[in-house]
């Protein structure tokens, strides 16, 4: 009887041991599968990232092609590019076609915010607040805002009273709500030094801000660009550009980068460009 009881206990121990081993093997298999998936995802991300960087390098080369008629045009059009099985979409925008926060005139700023959907009153107030942000002194301009107005709005800061240091700083300006910011941010710059955008390169929203141009004039400029094939036909490129490269693999993995560069020309021993800003991904 005791012998049978011992056999029963031993069988039970064996069954529990087998069950435990099965659980452990299942866990190891799940862990191995998860790690395999993570490795494949990371490998795809690396491939997409370097494909986007290759697109950036291709854009720099396109901007400096020896044949001026073969140079890429920096007006926001999409240039497709294939690299290592990835589809890369490249856009280049010349910064002198954007609206300079530190140099734009009042009528250009008002035109921008109206074109972005703000009513006349809001457009005038935000434009004046931008001018007051960059202007020294504590006295607000008509419709503008200095420290007292920011305090009255419950904000714990005031204007810089000096030129904008970054484009993103403009989202802090009194009256700049998130929706308006999202619409105007792509056409803002601090690197052109122009009172109004260069119409040869300006994106549609920046064109709409140019006083006196009107919808018909803007459409005519955009139509003419669509027929041009080279930088010479588009009036030539400037020296400061924002390049965006987005790479997509066959499995849907995506990577993007956005960089603002200043071309230095091709000289022996010199870097052909300087990076002013570099951002990976879509986050601001």
Automatic annotation (TrEMBL):
<dbReference type="InterPro" id="IPR049031">
    <property type="entry name" value="T2SSK_SAM-like_1st"/>
</dbReference>
<keyword id="KW-1133">Transmembrane helix</keyword>
<protein>
    <submittedName>
        <fullName>Type II secretion system protein GspK</fullName>
    </submittedName>
</protein>
<keyword id="KW-0813">Transport</keyword>
<keyword id="KW-0472">Membrane</keyword>
<keyword id="KW-1003">Cell membrane</keyword>
<dbReference type="InterPro" id="IPR038072">
    <property type="entry name" value="GspK_central_sf"/>
</dbReference>
<keyword id="KW-0653">Protein transport</keyword>
<keyword id="KW-0997">Cell inner membrane</keyword>
<comment type="similarity">
    <text>Belongs to the GSP K family.</text>
</comment>
<dbReference type="InterPro" id="IPR005628">
    <property type="entry name" value="GspK"/>
</dbReference>
<dbReference type="Pfam" id="PF21687">
    <property type="entry name" value="T2SSK_1st"/>
</dbReference>
<keyword id="KW-0812">Transmembrane</keyword>
<feature type="domain" description="T2SS protein K first SAM-like">
    <location>
        <begin position="101"/>
        <end position="191"/>
    </location>
</feature>
């Amino acid at each position: 009887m005791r012998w049978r009881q011992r056999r029963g206990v031993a069988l039970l121990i064996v069954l529990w041991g087998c069950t435990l081993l099965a659980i452990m093997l299942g866990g190891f298999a799940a862990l191995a599968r998860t790690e395999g998936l993570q490795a494949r995802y990371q490998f795809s991300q690396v491939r997409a990232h370097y494909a986007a960087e290759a697109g950036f390098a291709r854009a720099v080369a396109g901007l400096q092609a020896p044949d001026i008629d073969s140079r890429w045009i920096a007006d926001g059009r999409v240039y497709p590019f294939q690299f290592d099985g990835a589809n890369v979409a490249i856009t280049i925008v010349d910064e002198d076609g954007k609206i300079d926060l530190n140099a734009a005139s009042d009528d250009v700023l008002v035109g921008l915010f109206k074109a972005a959907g703000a009513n006349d009153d809001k457009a005038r107030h935000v434009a004046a607040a931008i001018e007051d942000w960059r202007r020294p002194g504590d006295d607000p301009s008509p419709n503008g805002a200095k420290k007292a107005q920011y305090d009255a709005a419950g904000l714990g800061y005031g204007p810089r009273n000096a030129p904008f240091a970054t484009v993103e700083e403009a989202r802090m300006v009194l009256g700049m709500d998130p929706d308006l910011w999202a619409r105007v941010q792509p056409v803002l710059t601090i690197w052109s030094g122009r009172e109004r955008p260069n119409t040869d390169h300006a994106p549609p929203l920046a064109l709409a801000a140019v006083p006196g141009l009107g919808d018909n004039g803007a459409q005519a400029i955009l139509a003419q660009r669509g027929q041009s094939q080279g930088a010479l036909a588009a009036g030539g490129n400037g020296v400061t550009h924002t390049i965006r490269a987005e790479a997509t693999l066959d499995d849907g993995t995506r990577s993007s980068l956005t960089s603002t560069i200043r071309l230095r020309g091709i000289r022996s021993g010199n870097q052909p460009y300087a990076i002013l800003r570099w951002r990976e991904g879509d986050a601001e």
